[in-house]
Amino acid sequence: xxxxxxxxxxxxxxxxxxxxxxxxxKKMDLDAKVVHADRLADYNALDPVFAHLNIEIxxxxxxxxxxxxxxxxxxxxxxxxxxxxxxxxxxxxxxxxEVISRESEKKDCELVVMGKRSDKxxxxxxxxxxxxxxxHRSHQSVLLVKNKNLLKPKKIVVAYDFSKxxxxxxxxxxxxxKVFNCEIHVVNIVPCYYEGYxxxxxxxxxxxxxxxxxxxxxxxxxxxxxxxxxxxxxxKENIIGKxxxxxNASISxxxxxxxxxxxxxxxxxxxxxxNKLAEFxxxxxxVKLAKKSKVSxxxxx
Length: 301
What we know:
By secondary structure, this protein is α/β, with parallel strands linked by helices. 46% of the residues lie in helices and 21% in strands. The chain has two domains: 1-148, HUPs (Rossmann fold); 152-301, 3-Layer(aba) Sandwich (Rossmann fold), CATH 3.40.50.620. Strand 1 (3-7), helix 1 (15-27) and strand 2 (31-38) form a beta-alpha-beta unit. The chain starts with a strand and ends with a strand.
């Protein structure tokens, strides 16, 4: 049986992701493993602080801290699901990004479920949050829960660019449609940014009209390719294919706008798994979706 790893910080912003993770594990017949990571229980990190204590006292403190964390985890799970004993939960010592990523690489893990804080500290703004760190380090798909709509999702948007990585997002949408009987919107964004679109004296020029004509022809060809792909990929699911033009130099923004317009409950995106340096210079649509969207995001890998 496969497994869902649910990251939990014991903070309020992770209650929705905990509830969604537990519900998805039952609906998809997967084991649920709730994981909490505590930096304060890391022996190496605290060694200077407790240098004056003997090893027995030090070890007892760390064990008691982890036990209290696990008691808090069990209380949270029990409040959500009375059958809490059917789920496993663990508090572990270490950096949250490292602990969650390590647990996600263990056998049978299919998905990591995490909450997403609406407020960011200064250090997170410059160095990235735990969720962003896990997205970069884990080789498993990551679900960032923004609200409880995912308990019964009705509409899913798949950001699609014909790559093999986006095919993984399509597979997830097919799986979720089977479980939740939801509507799938597969959206391909055609980037067509030209500064003349935004300059008043050129907005109605012959040059712009010629560009618009070429774009329309390209969009029709791409849309036909998209419809052919959907016809070969899906069978009985409720599918809607859309090809949209991005004139604002923001593919992620176009996806988010469409998701908001149809009141979607989830955005699915493939991940090209760039390192942080490459992402800094080139950007990443999936990470931008995770940061900017108020709709929950699943990054398929």
